[in-house]
Design brief:
mainly alpha, single chain, elongated, 7% strand
Amino acid sequence: MSLDISKEMTNGKHRPANKTQETDLVLVRKHIESFPKTPSHYTRRDSRREYLDSTLTIQKMYHLYEEYCRSQTPPVKPVSSAAYRKVFGTEYNLSFSSQKKTNARYALSIYRLMKVARCS
């Protein structure tokens, strides 16, 4: 009885049918990297995290990615939202900046409260 070793060694080694193509992932990375980033604030200078605009969300980015895919010649089928999120979350140290700037009206009301407190 002869055993076919090459056949035996490849059992179970096929590529999953639903695996995302590397060329599609390259397009996702290119899209994510196209957004302007702000480095960490000086108080977090040891952090390597970068920040995207606070008006963005991953969902908005994904919708822009879908538009980007449709604008390609020829149009490209976008990866799933889950695949986009996975690349964003595992390959990039990005976050969305929060608006920590105080607006002028709020600052003025704080100033008035402090002034009243000093006079009392």
